[in-house]
Structure formats: C-alpha cells, structure tokens
Write a structure and sequence with these properties.
Layout: H1 3-13, H2 19-98, H3 106-121, E1 125-134, E2 138-149, E3 152-164, E4 167-171, H4 196-202, E5 207-219, H5 221-226, E6 234-240, E7 257-260, E8 270-273, E9 278-281, H6 299-315, H7 317-320, H8 328-341, E10 345-353, H9 354-358, E11 366-376
Antiparallel strand pairs: 1-2, 2-3, 3-4, 5-10, 5-11, 6-7, 6-10, 8-9
C-alpha cells in the first residue's frame, strides 16, 4: 500500500476529503473487498483440493497394503500346499519302498537280516520284543536283546536301527560283543585249557551258569542234540565249523558263527491274522501258529535255517556289516565251505545248574569249557 493512499485513508477517516475524493476512496475499498472475496475463494478451493488429495493418498496406501497382505497370504498358502504335497508323496514313496517285494518285503528282509546277524554271530543272544515304524523316507526298528541265563531270558540291552532307503545305521550296546572261547577239536591239546570246569567246582550249589564248551570232535546237529536229551540243562547255541579258522595260525576262535536252539523265527515267514490278532506261519496257510520242532532233533531243518541266515547276511551285507566285523569275502568263503562240507558242530553254549554242568567234565565228547554268566538259582527242571 502506497504512502499516498495511506494518507488518503487517514483523511477519509477524519472526514477531510472532498466529495469526489471520498467517492474515489470508497470505490477503491469496494475493489479490495472483491479482491479479498476472490482470494478467499481461491484459498478455500486450494485447501479442498489438498484435502481431496490426502484422501486419495490414504485410499491408495490402503489398497497397496491390502494387496501386499493378499500376496503374502497367497505365497504362504502356495508354499504350504507344496510342502503338504511333498510330505504326502514322500510318505507314500516310503511306504511303497519298504513294503515292496516278494516273498518278503524290504522291511521284513531288513529286520530278518538284523536278527540273522545278531543270533548267528553273538552266541546265546537273541532279538526279543521289537517295534518298527516308517517315516518320511526312513524306517526305524528297535528291539530288546536277550540272553538265556538259567531259565530266564534276560534283557541285556537294546538295538536301535535307522534306515534311509538302503542305507542303514545300527547301534548296539558296547558290551554286547562277547569273546567266547571255543577251541577247535584238533587244537584241544595244543592250547592251554581255559579251566572252565575248575571255576564251576568253586561256584556254590544253588547257582546257575552259562558255559561255553568246546567239543573234542565235530558232530552232526542231531548227534550233538541227542547228547543233551535227558540232561537237566539246555544247549542254547551251537558253534559251526566254517573252515576259515583252520587256515589261521593256531588260536581259539574269536568270531564263531552258529545258530540258536529255538531257531530264528524270521519275520518274513509269518503273516498277521487280523481275525485272531496274531501272527501265523505263511507256509501253513494259517493252519498252524508256530513252528513245531523237536527239541532234540530236526537237525536238517535247523541246518537249512542256519544256511538261510548266512545267505541273508551275504545278500544284505551292508546291513550285516554294521553288526559283524567279518569281511564280505571271508563271509562268502565261510558260506561256500559250509555248503560243500555240511554243518559240523564244534562248540555249544549250555545253560543249567552249576553242579549239573560240572558233570560234563567227564564226558569224552567235551574238550574244554569257559564259564560265562552266573546267577543265583532261577531254574525250572528240564525233565
């Protein structure tokens, strides 16, 4: 605003202007009111446009945020669907893989080879209660390990095995590996006798013992079984001549192979009868629930089952190797020897009252003996 216009306004307010000058000032003031009104309209319009712009921005942000969450949810759902499909396919593949095969499926074969390896290479130790489950690409098999001492079958540890298809990992207790002392007949006079019978003489009446006896000669299975008929003791495991040992320098056998008195009871020989809720022998078509075998006989059946166990160990050597430390080449030679020469027994694990076992000292077919486990009386007479 100019100084001249200010002076005119001051004169207008004091009533000092001429009539024409008053009209001129009033016209100017009217113009200013129009300008102010126009300016106010412009400001209001601009503010309204700003408000509208802010609303649009908020709406756009809301849409973007909603879109992001929708995309995240779709991605998560897609990933979850893929994972469920992979799990379903994986589990289905595992079930098909482990239950595939004739006459025995893979799970039965894997369990049987574990059972065969332990009961063939660990004298007087058997596989007891067990459990098996199939997971994603894996199969787990757990079982109790039992030892026949006196009349009891004591649990001495647990077997833990895991399979990833054909790859196996088998864990056994460290103290499961025994070092039984069997001496071959032709070496009886060349090695110092282990003195097992002297130990039995010092053990008190009312105890039972596990005795590893080495025979003075090689015997057929039925021959050695008959020698225990009528005796108050149990022969529980039989060491078989595999020929390989005779090629070594003179020493006692540290890695004997043999078979248990009660047989292996391979899982592949049984099928589950859902009607009765129990396992029955496949060979009998459900007519019999268990094998009926003579305690002091059926040598040929026992020999055939032992040979089947050896062939299982050879066929699934990668599994057997987790338990038994013999090489595959050596195992093959032992199988070939038994196939050509038959099953010849040269050692037996016997359980019974200590003083009953001591009577074996006078038998000419017994060479030497080593005492294993001892317990207080837990005996039920055999006859």
């Amino acid at each position: 605003m100019s100084e001249d216009f200010k002076k005119k306004l001051e004169a207008y307010s004091n009533g000092e202007l001429l009539q024409e000058e008053q009209v001129e000032i009033e016209n100017e003031l009217d113009k200013m009111e129009v300008y102010q009104s126009y300016l106010d309209n412009l400001v209001n319009t601009h503010d309204q446009e700003q408000d509208n712009g802010t609303d649009r921005t908020k709406k756009q942000k809301s849409l973007i945020t909603r879109g992001k969450w929708r995309a995240r949810f779709q991605n998560a759902w897609t990933a979850l669907s893929i994972l469920i499909i992979i799990l379903f396919i994986g589990w289905g593949t595992s079930v098909i893989f482990y239950t595939w095969g004739e006459p025995a499926d893979r799970s039965e074969s894997y369990i049987d080879v574990i059972k065969a390896t332990i009961e063939t290479t660990q004298p007087n130790i058997t596989v007891g209660s067990s459990g098996m489950n199939v997971g994603l690409f894996t199969m787990n098999y757990d079982a109790e390990l039992r030892k026949w001492i006196g009349s009891d079958h004591e649990t001495i540890g647990e077997l833990d095995s895991k399979f990833l298809f054909n790859l196996s990992s088998i864990q056994l207790p460290d103290d499961i590996y025994q070092h039984p002392f069997f001496i071959y007949p032709e070496q009886q006079e060349q090695l110092d006798p282990p003195g097992g019978f002297e130990v039995l003489e010092r053990l008190p009446e009312g105890t039972v013992s596990e005795l590893f006896i080495s025979l003075s000669d090689y015997y057929e299975t039925n021959e050695i079984l008959k020698k225990f008929e009528g005796e108050n003791m149990w022969p529980t495991w039989f060491a078989v001549d595999t020929g390989f040992e005779q090629k070594d320098e003179i020493r006692a056998s540290e890695e004997p192979l043999g078979f248990p008195l009660n047989g292996y009871h391979f899982l592949s020989e049984y099928q589950f009868d859902s009607k009765n809720g129990e396992f029955i022998l496949k060979a009998f078509g459900g007519a019999a629930h268990s094998k009926s075998r003579k305690v002091y006989g059926d040598g040929e059946e026992r020999n055939e089952e032992f040979f089947k166990a050896l062939l299982l160990m050879k066929k699934y050597y990668s599994i057997a190797d987790d338990i038994h430390w013999s090489s595959e080449e050596r195992l093959s030679e032992q199988i070939e020897y038994i196939d050509e020469n038959g099953t010849k027994i040269y050692g037996v694990v016997v359980n019974g009252p200590t003083k009953e076992l001591l009577k074996l000292k006078d038998e000419d077919w017994v060479g030497s003996a080593v005492v294993g486990e001892k317990r207080l009386w837990n005996w039920r007479d055999v006859n």
